[in-house]
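Researcher: Before we compare anything, I want clean individual predictions. No alignment, no superposition, just each chain on its own. First chain goes here; please echo the sequence and then give the structure tokens.
Model: Echoing the first chain and its structure:
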Amino acid sequence: MDRRKFLGSALASGALAASASSQARESSTSTEREYYELRRYHILSGPMKQLADSYFKDALVPALNRLGIKPVGVFNTTIGAQGPSSYVLMPAPKSETLVAAERNLLDDAEYQKAAAPFLNAPARDPGAVRMESSLLYAFESLPKLAPPPAGPHIIEMRTYESTTMQDHIRKVEMMNSGEGAIFKKSNFWPIFMGDRLIGPRQPGLTYMISMSSLADRDKNWAAFFGSPEWKALTANPRFSFEPIVSNVDNEILTPAAYSQI
């Protein structure tokens, strides 16, 4: 069997199993949920950052668009424990599209030419220190990526870890059953919410929300936690019988000037 087909089939099967809850099932008429690859490039400031920006802007993003992967988000860490980093968010309707992307880039002469300075940089002066990647499956409540409205905005990316798969499934169910709607009511813009299928810190999920400023972020979170809907959700015994989230990491990101999200 072709490796790409095998991996794609396996990932799709795993996605359905990992994101299922005991009380929710997709119907045959529901909106098809997307897959996301989220990459983190650890990049030092100075020449390395300039080289990476040129690579993302002139090589990677256009080539991914040619593969049907769009819109592509590129974000820089403004506040966060991960240090100087750039994130690349890649959406696709099928997992196979993301699995095959690197192999298809090898056959893209235009990409290879534009990416050469980054790809061929010597180890003593690389374009990035390292790259980490996760594969995620969109939540039922937000099946497709939703770019924020045009205009200045910042992004908060939050990652939740759970101690057990049971707790993780309940947290996903909690977000699907109302938490996403509370974000919108609190003036956040949910960009994506994804169950992590492959990557570190399992089981876990990651989502991005946008707002216009840090000041608005504080006001929005106050509205979120003070809302009667949130208080009712957290009082539900299904979600409050034990701590279902063991760790939360959050980072403030700024879209690159050429980001499509």
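Researcher: Okay. Second chain, same rules.
Model: Second chain and its structure:
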Amino acid sequence: MKISSEAKVGLIGIATLALLIWGINYLKGRNILNSTYTLHAFYEDSGGLENSSPVLMKGMKIGYIDNIELQSGNPLPVHVILHVEKQYPVSNGSKALLFSADLLGTMAVRIESPGSGGDMLHNDTIRTAIEADMIASISSQVMPVMEKIGDLSESLDSVVQKLDKLLDSDAPAETLQDLSEISASLSSSLSPGGALYMSFHNLESFTSMLASQEDELKSMTGHLNSISETIDSAGIDRIANELLAASGAFTQLMEQLNSGEGSMGKLFYSDSLYAQLQNLLVDLDSLIIDLNENPQDYVRFSLFGK
């Protein structure tokens, strides 16, 4: 079958037109050969976001911005339509973060996913957030430093002014005179016969005396070590433990006496025992009196055994 020249021209024109459409969309960041799905995002401010701006995930481009609309009366009036390639599913709970992609302020959208699993978004609204651009972030960190530098400059100016006043006054001359007098006093003290000279001389003599008595000091130290070893071998720890045990037992005995517990405690604090002893003494006294008055009632004596 022979194709006519008109048909060839038509086919070439259609192919050229299709290639042109694809090339224009490709230059805009769109690949019309890849199938996509739509997500809706709402922001308070677009920050200069443009159509065909990239949509990124983990640093990789997965889509593009298809359209930006302003809907007045909405708390988040900027409506952004995202086209994401189907091979990159976005899970529910993900966030579309509007951020500055470079130092020039070019805005883009980054998808931050909480992880795998869960339902996937398709033609749904995604949560959004706005990240401060680099310049604003740098400014927020630099401005406090600049303010501190300004305060430091003012402080330095104040110090310089005070130094100028100090140098203009008579205080430096007086200070130098005081330092000269102090230096002269130190020189006098360090000269032979001075206070510091004598102190250093006495210290040197004491050091020499210690050096000459080194053997005796070593012997004294040895005797002290021997005494310490003797005390250790004498069982001081055992004696101390026994004394502590005896002290504890004595303390326990005193507590029982004070509380009225035990035999000794009851003997000290029992009123009934005291009353019984008192009655016994009274009975014994009556017995002795009766024995003196009537001995025949208690002792019977007979010469005849009757």
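Researcher: What stands out in the second chain?
Model: The chain has a mean pLDDT of 77. Additionally, The first strand starts at residue 36 and ends at 43.
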